[in-house]
Amino acid sequence: MIYVGKRLGALVAVLVVSSFIVFSGMYLAPGSPEQFLVQGRTVSPEVLAAIRAQYGLDDPFLIRYWHWLIDVLQGDLGRSLITQQDVTTLVAARIPTTLYLAGFAALLIVVFGIGLGVLAATRSGVFEKIVVFGSNLGFAVPTFFAALVLMFIFGSNLGWFPVSGSGQGFLDRLWHLTLPAIALAFPGIAVVARITRTAVREEQGSEHVVMAIARGVPKQLVLWRHTIRNSMLPVTTVIGTQIAGLLASAFVIEYAFTLDGIGSLLVNSVQKKDFAVVQAIALVMVLAFGIVNLIVDLLYSVIDPRVRLSKGVAAR
């Protein structure tokens, strides 16, 4: 419980610092906030003064940040400067598509990344060379280009999958998001497969694995209980990094497949300088990244209890 409490405390600290940076971004951008609010229109000094009073721009910076933070904690992310819609409602309507896409891609990364890496490490020969070549291809091919290739082959030519829209209902949505998820997961699968292959190979030569084989422990038991499990620490780190980055890279895929997720909303909001929406999406991404890192930390202690014990000893 102490270990979990420390991780939660670290997450809260990261979120507070990140919220301050996100809020400060609007004021660090060129031009004054009221000029962004009037969207380049020519207004009288009286109107500018009224806008400053309405949004509390005459208050000290830290006071403005505190009021904004309190509103955020209460679920009020402000109003869109372009559409005047409630930002919380606007973002909430887009989140399901992005979560489906990122969750689908994360599942592909875990299953195919670890699976291909383990098979490549335990089966040398042609299969290993194919996995290594595929991982190199995943490193080299940009996500947007992979999306275009998938759309051309499996969408336009074969007609197996739709190339636009998010679908309705669970199964229809999965069908619509299959190509986007594959394109989004492709680089992550390549990275995880490469790291898994290397980690398993190194673990196969470790002393405790050699001793287990010498004692006559069945090879399959050695593989799963000793080799794969002990090689999962570096793999878990990489998987956590890849999954956490899915939300940040999803905007490319959402734009390519015209999906109604927060990634495409972020692109449109940045182009139109709708800072209230940009701030809200940035907070969502920071929160998602922090939660994924927390889950990775907790998985460390499950995979190897010595991690949790060493943290406790260091704290004492």
From TrEMBL:
Keywords: Cell membrane, Membrane, Transmembrane, Transmembrane helix, Transport. Residues 95-296 form the ABC transmembrane type-1 domain. Its main location: membrane. PROSITE patterns: ABC_TM1. InterPro entries: BPD_transp_1_N, MetI-like, MetI-like_sf. It is a multi-pass membrane protein. It holds the Pfam family BPD_transp_1. It is found in: Cell membrane. GO terms for cellular component: plasma membrane. Gene3D superfamilies: MetI-like (1.10.3720.10). The chain crosses the membrane at residues 7-29, 99-119, 131-154, 174-193, 233-257, 277-300. GO terms for biological process: transmembrane transport. Belongs to the binding-protein-dependent transport system permease family. PANTHER family: DIPEPTIDE TRANSPORT SYSTEM PERMEASE PROTEIN DPPB-RELATED. This is ABC transporter permease. It comes from Leucobacter chromiiresistens.
